[in-house]
């Protein structure tokens, strides 16, 4: 939904042809600011060229900004949420996907490993490794038991991480110690 995940989109576009080779019905939905509004943006030109050059026009859909309800609907009907960021702190979209139980594949950068434990709540890959990204996506596609296990573990972890009452108590404790 934000700007930084879209900056890692080229990683996913490089991995997508390998995924489509095995799973030709694969569709990618990208939420967030419209990358193509600024016609002079060199990154947007690069992304457009990658989409056309890899014949991905029928596989990738840019949704624009979504409200919470629409975002939740997309998470619920998605088989996987991919966070291909080059840099990231604590992405809300990963927490949101985990809360609804959508398995997560994310780059091992910034604060992501503090939210998702690899092979427990999701699959993490080395940022920039197209092979690891495509392998991780295909691994979830082909293994329903793995997808269900990641989903269940992620929901438990997210319920704990994003518990409002618990977080409020911890915040109040911090304020009271000052």
In terms of topology, how is this protein built?
Elements: H1 4-7, H2 9-22, E1 28-31, H3 42-53, E2 60-64, H4 68-77, E3 81-83, H5 92-100, E4 104-107, H6 112-115, E5 122-125, H7 130-142, H8 144-161, H9 164-177
Parallel strand pairs: 1-2, 3-4, 4-5
Word description of this protein:
- This protein is mainly alpha-helical.
- The chain is built from 9 helices and 5 strands, in the order ααβαβαβαβαβααα.
- The strands form 2 sheets. Strands 3-4-5 form a 3-stranded parallel β-sheet, sandwiched between helices.
- The longest helix is centred in the last third of the chain and has 18 residues, at 144-161.
- It is globular.
- Residues 1-5 have low confidence and may be disordered.
List keywords for this structure.
single chain; 178 residues; mainly alpha; two-stranded parallel ribbon; 5 strands; 55% helix
**How do the SSEs run, as a string of H and E?**
HHEHEHEHEHEHHH
The end-to-end distance, rounded to whole angstroms, is 35 Å
| Principal-axes shape call | globular
Stretches where pLDDT is under 50 for at least 5 consecutive residues are 1-5
Radius of gyration: 17 Å
Share of helical residues: 55-70%
Mean of pLDDT: 90
Question: What structural class do helix, strand and pairing data support?
Answer: mainly alpha
Continuous helix count? 9
- Count every beta strand, where a strand is a DSSP E run of 2 or more residues: 5
The proportion of residues in beta strands is 5-15%
- Sheet bearing the most strands, described? 3 strands, parallel
- Identify the strand order in the major beta sheet: 3-4-5
